[in-house]
Specification:
The chain is α/β, with parallel strands linked by helices. 27% of the residues lie in helices and 21% in strands. It has 8 helices and 12 strands. A 7-stranded mixed β-sheet has the order 1-2-3-4-5-6-7. A 5-stranded mixed β-sheet has the order 8-9-10-11-12, with no helix packed on it. β2 and β3 form a beta hairpin. α7 runs antiparallel to α8. It is globular. The mean pLDDT is 94. This is MBL fold metallo-hydrolase. It holds the Pfam family Lactamase_B. InterPro entries: Metallo-B-lactamas, NDM-1-like, RibonucZ/Hydroxyglut_hydro.
Length: 248
Amino acid sequence: MRADVREVADGTYLVHGTNTNWVILTEGDAATLIDTGYPGDRQLVLDSLAAVGSSPQAVAAVLITHAHNDHLGSAEYLRTTYGTPVQLHEAEVPHARREFLHQVSVGTVLRNGWRPGVLPWAVHSLRAGGTAHLPVAAPEPFPAAGPLDLPGRPVPVHTPGHTRGHTVFHLPGAGVLVSGDALVSGHPTSRISGPQLLPDMFHHERAQALASLEILESLDADVLLPGHGPVHRGPVEAAARRARDHAL
């Protein structure tokens, strides 16, 4: 399988892995990597960096929207192999260290196995390392509020609910929002297309995930780069409202 790399704005790339996405922000050959896919996506992550003219050695930091295995997959590998800092919201740091795990359980998945798409997704997730034990030994909280001093100058915005420390990344100059799992545009277990919340079983606190859509509505962006599904173009405010309508 080849990495599906798409430039969605100048120096901003959405990469489709196997049922999950990550984002690369570039300045010359330097890069910021937002999320890292499943453990099984490692070669795709490396290939995608090469495809945009960068390399793992040139990644200034790995930013993690949340510490589920399908987003955290290669973070510790990059940290230990290349010395790349791994940064998250302070509430998500202990999650990345695996002091606790806010991730859908195998039992919950089995109880929902009758739903369309759930069992094929579960089989893929297991094969890709979805249940692997992958702590990040030394994750770091974001160093300061406001834009990070990294390629792309992403602005972390706390959007709890999917996990306690879930964070989206706003690129105000480019009109882009990297939304992780706070707002997606599709998922193998969903029969809906377009902006939506993930199915209920995936959220640590669904009511808070729903409330966080109000935070997204306040962000000025017209390109949505979700953790799952294709790029969505149009006002993020409208996308968040549409997701709320589907969820209520």
